[in-house]
Amino acid sequence: MTLQRSILFGALSGALSGALLATPLLAQTEIKIGYALAAAPDSHYGVAAARWQELVEERTDGRYVFRHFPSSGLGGEREVIEGVQLGTVEATIVSSGTLANFVPETGVFDIPFLFRDLGHARRVLDGPIGQDILEKFDDEGLVALAWGEQGFRHITNNRNQIGGPEDISGMRLRTMENPIHLTAFQTLGAAPTPMAWPEVIGALQQGTIDGQENPLSVIVSVNLNDVQEYLTISGHVYSPAMILISPMVWDAMSEEDQQIFREAAVEAVAAMRGFVDDVEESGLETLRERGMDVAVLSAEDRAAFQEALAPAYEQYYETYDQSLIEAIIATE
Ligand code: PAF
Fold first, then answer.
1. pTM exceeding the 0.85 threshold for the entire prediction
2. pLDDT, tens digit, 9 for 90 and up, residues 32-46
């Protein structure tokens, strides 16, 4: 290096280190967010996670950055929730599938045929009943920010079309790891197998199970039509979703940042519900076009399922306060 170049280099590096000293480095906290479905715009979880990220990053001037792990990139929902408890994962969007194993009261929303329609479910979850249950997560090492949504669940399978409870007799049906769902399908005479989501497509391909149940949002976004022939619009259960954040990251935040995360989560849920609304409109047609044999249960068929579930309802009334169930049903 010539003398001139080395003087120039020295002057430049001096100026640079002076500038670095004068400008404090931006402290950024990474939010690893895991969820079971595709990244935005291809699933309701992806859309909600992206909206949450956008709002938080914008409102905190980039002090938090999100890193997405879609399509079960961090494992099954139970594993991810445990990671959120431990602080190895900062946030997640999950179904209510395994939530009753953490806060048993959430299971009440998984009771079959409890909600009349999406509006009814949203009003209950956004009202005092839903909000009280969100607070119960604090005692389980989790911060529950908002109820999300997937839509009503329907049955898909490779064995036969379903018109009544007799048609699922002995059917090897994957359920979520959820005691309420398990009781329901056992009562209906199926052969339910609780299974973590990442194993489901492989089990359907290999034929170790005949079917599964999920809302149109999931059936469409994961192309279940590739591995399932029959779709029965049963709407047997609502089964909500939830946005959770780790207390490790939450407790380290200022109250202002907590407020930003909470408000942004509510707006992310609005985006999730918007996606669900759209797919509820278009999903059936999409799946018919993709070749599925689709049938919609009539009001009488649904009533037959409800009747067959009578012994399960007795068990639910023993587990959950009857007045709570009645208050949910009575919510206008
Ligand atoms: O069936 C399930 O386990 C859930 O609905 C899914 C697909 C993981 C989305 O949360």
1. yes
2. 999 999 999 999 999
